[in-house]
Amino acid sequence: MTVYKYIDFQVPDWGELQQPPQSRMSYRGEVLADSPLMYLRLVESAGPTACDETGRHDATEDGTLVWGIQGPLAFDSDAAVGSTGAGGLVINETGWLPIGSSERTFELWFKPNNNTLIYRGINYGAASSGGTQSLIYTASEISVAVSECRFGIQGLSLAGQWHHAAWVLPDGATRCDEFVIYLDGQPVLASVLYGSGATQVNTADSTLKINQYVSGIANNCDFDEIAIYGGALSSQRILDHYTSGVNAGAL
Amino acid sequence: MSTVLTQSNAAAYPDRSGLNGLGLHASMSTGDQGGYIYHDLGAPQAELNVRFVFNPWGLSGCRIVVLAGLDSQGKEALRVSYLVVSGVLSVWTPGGVQLSTELDGVIDWQCVEVAVDAVSGQASLWVNGVLVDQSVGDLSASTIQTILFGAIHKQTDVSGDLYLDELCIADAYVGPVIVEPDSSYASDPARWLVVYNTSDPDAVSWADAYRQARGIPFANLAGLALPTTETISASQYEDMVGEISAYLVDNGLDGQVVGILLGYRVPGYVDFTGNGPLESVPALMQTSDLSAGTAANPNASPASDARLTFDDLAGARMTARLDAPNLAAANELVSRADTIFASGLGGDDSAIYFDPFVGSEPAYQQAFTELLDWATGPYGMKTRLPIKLSGAPSGNQEASFTDISGDGLFLGWSSTLPNPDIFSNPAGPRAVCVQLYLGGGSAMTLRGATPGNWAGVPVDAGYASAVVSCRDHSVSAIPDVGALFDALREGWTLGEAWHVAQPLLRSGFYLVGDPLMTVAMPRGGCDVFGPLQDLEDMDPTAPDYMLAEGKTELDLSANPPALGVVRHYVIRRTDEEGRAEVSSTSVEVINWGGVAQEPVSMPVWPDAGDWPVALEEGQVRLMACWVERIRSTDIETVALLSQADGQAVAVAALPEWGPSDSYVLATVPMPDVKTRYRWRFTSPGGVVQYTPFSAWVEPVPVPTLSLQQIGA
User: Fold this and answer.
1) CB contact under 8 A, A26 and B154
2) Which distant-in-sequence residues (6+ apart) come within 8 Å of B342 by Cβ?
3) Cα distances (Å, whole numbers) of residue B454 to B204, B397, B403, B515
4) For A75, which of B16, B35, B153 is closest by C-beta distance?
5) Mutate to test the interface with B, among A16, A75, A247 (most CBs of B within 10 A)
6) pTM of the complete model
7) What is the rounded distance in angstroms from the CA atom of residue B464 to the CA atom of residue B462?
8) Interface probe with A: pick from B153, B174, B178, most Cβ of A within 10 Å
9) What is the pLDDT of residue B712?
10) Measured between CB atoms, does B113 come within 8 Å of chain A?
11) Which of B38, B72, B453, B675 has a CA between 20 and 30 Å from the CA of residue B179?
């Protein structure tokens, strides 16, 4: 038998270690540190209620979800939910989401199971010009749609793996093409995929649908850790969230 | 900071606290911050074993990750998490291979080892040296380069103290933390394997209590999932032996363990045929082979007092069993052993009772003779304990005790079982009860108290241990009484003493109780040498009597001085370690009518025969002198005796003495015939002693003078 390393902590001042002890904030801790409006951890083993970690805006299963699947976070045994294209979540409560062109951040982890394109992964608002906002995450595309404008990136190969996505509308931004979209902690080189990038963001208040457009029309996708912020997270914070989730750079 | 890592004494693994006594202490409060240490192996390893010990019982909350492995890209390749609320330990790998087990919360420190073999796709989980889960699957993503250890990830609500220690990363099975024995002898707890049955929830409680009581290393506790029945089949026995052997070999204990204690709810009997008779598991396990036959014990009745070492065992094992009707009763046996440990035996409350069966067969008579030789000889005497026989030593009768009190040790064998009522009297600490029933099995259960189950009698009587049998046995299996008690007297453990007392191993007899118990016998007291005609006859290495501390009486009946003869007895004190004092005192004893009396203080003059007598002025003057005042002696009366030639002795004078006198003087008329004299002294106790006779005194004519001669 070859012993690679034996540590009995008998040498004071961490003398047996390559480095002193490291500290690590959990993904949950990173998210909560940014004061989200809502944070669905989706740790429940069964529906229909998905609890908001902030205690404010619980979501309800709409259609059929698979609860309790393996989540994306490193070191974290908490569960996630999966959808075969037939279910999502809904929050019927209104009056709390970012509206108009106010700054905002949406964030989640997702694992696409196929390349079915659903144009409204997370969406709310009203059908007037610039009044709706849909966040799209598929196996090949990540984008935001503001009414008839779609802004983001295509040609990705994301199927079968967990990824972190974030959409940030910075303070003072008013146009669809001013969203900053992040994939796995890094901003993507987004472009206008459809319509006019100058479409004004003027989101109306409404119910919130997650992973689906209407009942029965949903992403075939696993998803987890959905957070909505009333402010624009910095690129560093987005990166912090991501690295915490995958343990990148933790040593 | 919701997690703070420190090197702490509190986190030191008790079995290996070392010079600094440090371990890894994760102090946690509610929050999301974890902490960890890590070690980068420099390259990903396809086969890796990681062993650690941890004490998670100070935690509350939900889940915590205590160990993780990262691949060469820093991606999580292995996760070991502990679910505080349920005690479940889980192993996760990204390929879907998962393992889990539920830890028992009784034993503080748990030894966990995880093996990940990405080549074969097999992952294994050991807890406390026992394989508890194993699975095969896709481990291709689990080539590990970096190990993280600590409170790597905690759920928010986890708080409290987590102690971790003894992290070992290797390419093969590491096993529990082995404690090297400090001693070559079986008194070292590291030389015993304590087997307990994880199938019974109380068994682990017993095991941990025993571990704490005797300092058994954690690695020497073998928790095995065994049948819960007290009697098992041949195949079950084979499995059990296999598991025990595997535990010893796999965990590197086979090179140091000399004894096996079968603990609470471990099966105790094997029914090889399905119809009996039962075989005792502890007796069978005295050798490592599976055959049911007896085997000569190479260590029986050792010629020297050299203590057995691991090498001396040569494959044989010391064994014992500690089971009882319930957990409290099993723990009570350990508590009794504690009492014996603390106080030992001594005084009149700790007599040795022997109740042998003599019979007419030579083998029994030989055993009886050997017992007597020991009990009445110097070895029995060395116990400094009263030794009581059920019959007279010279007899061949089938005597038995009807009443016992003050018994510390009991040993007997008989074709009938003793009446249990003989133990009903209260007693001091009762240590060992050996009853070798010759009529067949008498102790077929330790768990069920039935009238025919004699094993329960000594336990009910308050003994800390017993030797019993569950089947017939040959006379040649009767243990060597001397070897047993000599070993105990020398401070050997009960396990060792029982082992050397057995001429045959696997004979069917088995020891019930704590094999690590020692039965201290009195070492302090008085050694007495005598009767001695002269002080220089004393052999300081061979006392004739050894009395316990506080013992003030000595029975001389076995070897008295001749009637009326004065002999010396030298008394030398020994301290509680048995060390003799340099100085000693002596007394003289006279056998006065069969009663030992202190002799009268004899004068320094006359002290030899034919002592001369002074004749003065027609009278005989006789004197006896002492070196001290007569009133300081025990002399009550003095008489001068005279014996005319051919006549009887008669009292010639009864002199008196003054308070300051150290002599007596008698003046008697000149005898008419040849006469001799002697002094007679009497003590207040009636002891009468004489000086030797004087020389004969020839009568001297008194000269007659004429008037002319006197000047008339």
Assistant:
1) yes
2) none
3) 27, 24, 17, 20
4) B153
5) A75
6) 0.86
7) 6
8) B153
9) 47
10) no
11) B38
- Residue B493 burial (C-beta neighbours within 10 Å; 0-12, 13-18, 19+): buried
Question: Average pLDDT, stretch B454-480?
Answer: 87
Judged by CB atoms closer than 8 Å, whether chains meet at A23 and B35 is answered as yes
pLDDT value of residue A119: 66
Nearest C-alpha neighbor of B260 from the set A116, B347, B268: B268
> How big is chain A, counted in residues?
251
CB contact at 8 A, B570 and B588: no
Q: Do A17 and B156 make contact, defined as CB atoms within 8 angstroms? A: no
Give mean pLDDT, residues B414-439.
82
| Amino acid residing at B155 | Q
| DSSP reduced 3-state for B336 | helix
The token pair at B347 is 């005084």
In contact, A176 and A199? CB cutoff 8 Å: yes
Question: Residue B396: pLDDT above 60?
Answer: no
Inter-chain residue contact A24 with B34, CB threshold 8 Å: yes
B306 Cβ neighbours under 8 A, 6+ residues apart:
none
Going by their DSSP bridges, the two strands A87-91 and A59-63 should be labelled as antiparallel
Give the residue, B428 or B670, on which the prediction is more confident.
B670
- The strand pair at B231-233 and B269-271 is best described as parallel
Chain A residues with at least one Cβ partner in B under 8 Å: 1-14, 17-26, 28-30, 32, 74-78, 246-251
Q: Write down the residue that tokens 């088995």 correspond to.
A: B510
Q: What is the CB-side half-sphere exposure of residue B530 using CA atoms within 13 A?
A: 29
Q: Does A5 contact B3 at a Cβ distance shorter than 8 Å?
A: no
Q: What is the DSSP letter of B694?
A: B
Task: Indicate yes or no: CB of B167 within 8 angstroms of CB of A5.
Answer: yes
Secondary structure class of B675 (helix, strand, coil): strand
Distance of alpha carbon A144 from alpha carbon A180, whole angstroms: 9
Single-letter amino acid code for the residue at B192: W
B172 in contact with chain A, both atoms CB, cutoff 8 A: yes
Would you call B92 an interface residue with chain A, using a CB distance cutoff of 8 Å? yes
Strand partners, A150: A145, A194
| Cβ pair B23:A9 closer than 8 A | yes
Nearest to B211 by CA among B203, B226, B221: B221
* Cα B389 from Cα A130, distance rounded (Å): 110
User: Distances from the Cα of B580 to the Cαs of A186, A234, B521, B571, in angstroms?
Assistant: 88, 88, 16, 10
Q: What are phi and psi of B66, to 5 degrees?
A: -105, -20
Which of the residues in chain A have pLDDT under 70?
115-119, 215-216, 248-251
Rounded-to-integer distance, Cα B202 and Cα B159, Å? 29
DSSP letter (8 states) at residue B370? H
Give B 175-204 residues with CB within 8 A of chain A: none
What pLDDT shows up at residue A84? 83
Q: Where are the alpha helices (DSSP H) in chain A?
A: 27-33, 235-246
pLDDT for res A248: 63
Residue with tokens 């030989």: B366
Contacts of B74 in chain A (CB under 8 A): 247-251
Q: With an 8 Å Cβ cutoff, are A77 and B63 in contact?
A: yes
Distance CA B124, CA B97 (A): 10
- Is the Cβ pair A1, B174 closer than 8 Å? yes
- Are A3 and B170 a contacting pair at CB < 8 A? yes
Chain A residue whose CA is closest to B171: A2
A24 contact residues in B (CB cutoff 8 A): 33-36, 152-153
From chain B, the residues in CB contact with A25 under 8 A are 32-34
Which residues face B659 on adjacent strands?
Answer: none
pLDDT tens across B647-699, in order?
Answer: 999 999 999 999 899 999 999 999 999 999 999 999 988 899 999 999 999 98
